[in-house]
Design brief:
Blueprint (H helix, E strand, L loop, with lengths): L1 H5 L2 H8 L2 H6 L3 H25 L5 H15 L3 H4 L3 H9 L9 H15 L2
């Protein structure tokens, strides 16, 4: 599940921008398509949890989904930094540790799964 996020950087980028405004200014048919895809992704994660964590109750699966999804849709800015942002951090003496999407998402998913068992 976490490896699949690495292949979807464009989705993570779009979801990390002001997604409330993006949706408010979208045509209804596009917003409906997006909501259907988003709902399907939540169902797919629930199916994965049912298959690989069969002991998890519905409430625990929902807790995982509603903690993990908000996390992953804000992960992009922590994994992709422009050259200008790097220069600004260097100038400000900010020691930023660069991470891949996997490196940030995996510990979160693992910790959430441990809490929900």
């Amino acid at each position: 599940m976490v490896h699949s996020l690495e292949r979807r950087t464009q989705l993570l980028k779009l979801m990390s921008i002001n997604h409330f405004d993006m949706q408010a200014n979208s045509r209804m048919e596009r917003l409906t398509e997006f909501k259907a895809a988003f709902g399907n992704s939540m169902k797919a994660v629930d199916c994965l949890l049912q298959k690989f964590c069969p002991e998890m109750r519905l409430e625990n699966r929902r807790n995982f989904i509603y903690a993990f999804f908000p996390f992953i849709y804000g992960i992009y800015p922590y994994c992709v930094v422009t050259e200008q942002q790097r220069q600004a951090m260097d100038a400000a003496n900010v020691r930023y540790v660069y991470h891949s999407i996997y490196e940030l998402a995996y510990p979160c998913a693992k910790k959430l799964l441990e809490a929900e068992r």
